Amino acid sequence: MNNPFTLEGKTILVTGASSGIGKAVAIQCARAGANCIITARNDARLSDTLMTMDGGSKILADLSTKEGIMALVEQIDGKLDGVVCAAGVVETQVLKLTDENDMQHLFNTNAFSAIRLVRELVQQKRMNKGASIVLISSISGVKCGYVGGSIYGATKGAIEGFVKATALELAPQRIRVNTIIPGMVETHLLDHSDIDKEQIEADKLRYPLKRYGQPEEIGYAAVYLLSDATQWMTGTGILIDGGYTLV
Amino acid sequence: MNEFIKNFANQWDDTEPEVFTPECEFHELEEWGSLIGLAIMNMIAKKYGVKIAPAELKACVTIADVYNLIQSKQ
To answer: A147: distance to nearest CA of chain B, Å?
Structure first.
């Protein structure tokens, strides 16, 4: 009997795969049988991800620039059955203290990297028919906000906006475009945040399920969206937030 | 120090500028809150190139303490 949830025979590109959500997505995709191509800027950490996977390959790339994206696409052999754009950074900065550089940095890394990569793959016809594109969004900027998250939220809002029309434009080729909308996930990004450890613990209690998400829980959703089980899903998002936006 | 106090005071909207002196115990001011705290940490990172952890800011009692903390990290 065919398993609609398997990624056997699919080639999947995962960005931001050296840590956090991207790393967990890459590991889960490999477990589900995909041939994974993983990419990030940090060679040592990317190699570490690759070692925890069953097979796959890595390409070093800086996706915050158009040139970096062109270089990545050039190094990919053949066509892809799926892409997961998980490269991103979190900055906690109150709006009045942000400047043009902050905006450029956040938009280049969180929004334009994914938009440019998808555009390049489409322009170069590097996606197979029936392929699946998954972008990592956030509840911040899409469902709610947090103090110091105005620009970050704007980048995630941009991702959600991008998905709608792109899903329509790629539908004739049966290429699906969806997002995953996570609440706070336990990643190393939290270790470097401007938020107090006590505040983090208090924040966890605001989630009805009383904890932050684990990176692999986002990985499972990515596998689902990449698999043939979701061939009739496009232009939408899967909300995974421990019930945070219910209250 | 004067320049720092000016930058520090600039993060507050409803507190009179004269209140901000080196001895000012800023946590006690009515307007104090996590938003002001974040703005002060952002300002310090931007203008002085120093990263202050929330716990470090919490441990400072006066504005002079914050100033000295920055000096010690520069």
So the answer is: 7
Q: Which of B11, B36, B38, B60 to mutate to test the interface with A (most CBs of A within 10 A)?
A: B38
Query: What number of helices (H) and strands (E) belong to chain B?
Result: 4, 0
The pLDDT of residue A192 is 60
Q: Do B39 and A96 touch (CB under 8 A)?
A: yes
CA–CA separation, A237 vs A117, rounded Å? 19
Predicted TM-score (pTM) above 0.90: yes
Mean pLDDT for back-to-back runs of 10 residues, chain B (74 residues): 95 95 97 94 96 93 97 93
Element (H, E) at A161: helix A150-170
The shortest CB-CB distance from B42 to any of A97, A195, A199 is to A97
Per-residue pLDDT for A196 more than 80?
no
Nearest to A194 among B38, B46, B58 (CB): B38
Question: What is the mean pLDDT of the segment spanning A122-138?
Answer: 98
Nearest-angstrom CA–CA distance, A62 and A113 = 9
Structure tokens at A130: 């029936």
Distance of CA A140 to the CA centre of its chain: 14
- The SS3 of residue B24 is coil
Chain B environment of A195 (Cβ under 8 Å): 54
In this predicted model, what pLDDT tens digit does every residue of A216-241 receive, in sequence order? 999 999 999 999 999 999 999 999 99
Report ipTM for this prediction: 0.83
B1 touching chain A per CB within 8 A: no
User: Inter-chain contact B54–A96, Cβ cutoff 8 Å?
Assistant: no
From the list A94, A97, A195, which residue is nearest B54 (CB)?
Answer: A195
Q: From A224, A225, A140, select the one nearest A183 (Cα to Cα).
A: A140
Catalytically annotated residues of A? 152
The rounded distance, in Å, linking the Cα atoms of A133 and A171 is 12
